[in-house]
Amino acid sequence: MLSADLLKKIQHIYIKSRYLANDIFSGEYESAFRGRGMEFEEVREYFPGDDIRTIDWNVTARMDKPFVKVFREEREQTVMLVVDGSASQNFGSKNRLKREMAAEVAAVLAYAAVKSKDKVGLLIFTDQVERFIPPKKGRGHVWRVISEILSFKPIGLRTNLDTALTFLMTAIHRRAVCFIISDFLDTPYEKSLKTGRMKHDLVLFHLTDPIEESMDKGGWIYMRDLESGSLLARNLGSPSVRRSFTIEQNKEIQKRKNRFNQAGVDSLFLRSDRDYIPPLLQFFKMREKRR
Description:
The chain is of the alpha/beta class. The protein has helices at 4-24, 28-32, 57-63, 98-115, 139-151, 161-171, 190-199, 239-263, 277-290; strands at residues 37-45, 67-74, 78-84, 119-125, 129-136, 176-182, 201-208, 220-224, 231-235, 266-271.
């Protein structure tokens, strides 16, 4: 049974995601993530303003005036939310845990998808596939997605994206839009990303916490890796140590960006202490413009 505090969080995220999907992201999702393809519907006479690339030259030649092909978009599609449930998602140095931010981002994507009459499924993974909810329509399904992410208690502690993507390839047969939400604290996974994008439209949302990029002034601190359990001691009173830490972390983030680019997948980096709405809107517009 869910606690009162957890129910309150779920309700807050649900209401917020509904507002964002209806008022802020209205139309943006559909423009950025269209259906599986275009289906030929008819040929009609050309009108000024029509895209000249749709001109049917065979009919035009026969009729001695321009005609264009009209296509109907296949709108319904499957959306999979692939959410990292490993121990590192329980970390948060500012306003919220990475797990809570993952739930918010997933909820907005889920609500935008069901509003467009798409099916939404959920896969939660650690170093194994821990939970799989088949794609389904309906606004009530968004509530379940949020509650599953927030109430999830993992068996595994580490992250293994290869396992999740391998499962996804066999579980979802038709092409789907797969939003992978994780901090990507994992061993190299480029090969799985490259294989996965051949079948599905993979979109990566990389979650980071501000303390993972730079450290404030202070004395000695002890940091425990939530996934491996290893302990690390740092003297934050030393400017050189803080500078070295920042350089080291920025290099790691750049490595991940390079991996995503090499795999040929879209990615968006989101910090847990910042508003994710502006970068998400910008990302949707970038997808729309590219299409």
